[in-house]
Amino acid sequence: MDKDIRYKEMIGYLKESKEFIFINIVTMVFISAFLVSEDLPIIDIFLIIVVWICLLFGFFIINYLKRQRYHKKIEKMLDELDKKYLITDIIEFSQSMEDDFYYHIMRICNKAMLDEIYQEKRERLEYKEYIEQWIHDIKNPLATVKLICDNNRSEATTKILIETSRINNYIEQALYYARSANVEKDYLIREVLLSEIISKVLVKNKQFLIENGTHILMNDCNNSVLTDEKWLEFIVMQIINNAVQYKSNYILELKICSIESNNGVKLIISDNGIGILESDIPRIFDKGYTGRNGRKNNSSTGLGLYLCKKLCDKLSVDISIESEIGRGTKVTLLFQRGNILRMQA
């Protein structure tokens, strides 16, 4: 393979030098003709041509090897560079005017690209900040609606509370999606009790769970884990909301427990819902993927489990799903021992 590459490079180099070679050949012919007309011995003319060709050949070899060393030096610098786009800042000037011209063009193009990326990042940051601010602002009127409904209980206000809970869930999705790219800047790792996290989620979604006839079975959730409280709360909320969204015609049973294993602590949330097709499970965490169940449910966005997976990866929590059609789904969160070291790595 290396021989083929060298051969192609040499052919390319000769093609680049074809004008120079042509001029030398024409010059040789004219000088030879002139020397013949001057009655110079043929053997002398032949020796002159041979010396000329040897010098020309030597020039090409030296120049080719010099270019090869220069190219290999650049390739080595590029391989050792983490941020490849900075190559123009450390590359050395060549002795070739043509190379220097291309280097100058490359620097201009590179600067234009970096300016474009900076502008794009700035616009995305501004949009993200606007979305986060909008989400915080919209929570105030929703909190007011909830307060009014709590103080004026009726069948209508109960339904409003349920829909408000759903809106809050979508708002939380939008907020965490906006922040998911920079989780490490927003988390606070500390020891949290799993039972407290689950209780908070159940209280927040109380009306929604009651309306959907959800039966909660929570056993042995007294294990503590090292993680970020609010991010874990969001992950658990998405898993529970998914279970409610894809419940079967029977009473929904949610079983929540935690167990300590050799690898760490497992939080297991299982339901008796409609289940997930085996062919859908490998793609269940893909962004926007809803599967067969999602296509039947117009409210599916395909973002809930995607965000769960993304946040779990950032927090070094392993998430896995087992499911069977008609039998239900089991989601397992594994908090491995030493995950703080994994997050810092």
From TrEMBL:
Bilayer disposition of the protein: Multi-pass membrane protein
Any Gene Ontology CC annotation: plasma membrane
Highest taxon in the source lineage: Bacteria
One GO MF term attached to the UniProt entry: phosphorelay sensor kinase activity
GO biological process, one term: cellular response to phosphate starvation
Subcellular location: Cell membrane
Catalytic activity: ATP + protein L-histidine = ADP + protein N-phospho-L-histidine
EC id: 2.7.13.3
Transmembrane segments: 20-36, 42-65
UniProt keyword Transmembrane, yes or no: yes
Residue ranges of every copy of the Histidine kinase domain listed in the record: 133-339
Keyword Nucleotide-binding: no
Keywords from the UniProt entry: Cell membrane, Kinase, Membrane, Transferase, Transmembrane, Transmembrane helix, Two-component regulatory system
InterPro entries, sorted: BphY/WalK/GraS-like, HATPase_C_sf, HATPase_dom, His_kinase_dom, Sig_transdc_His_kin-like_C
Protein's name according to its UniProt entry: histidine kinase
Upper taxonomic lineage: Bacteria, Bacillati, Bacillota, Clostridia, Lachnospirales
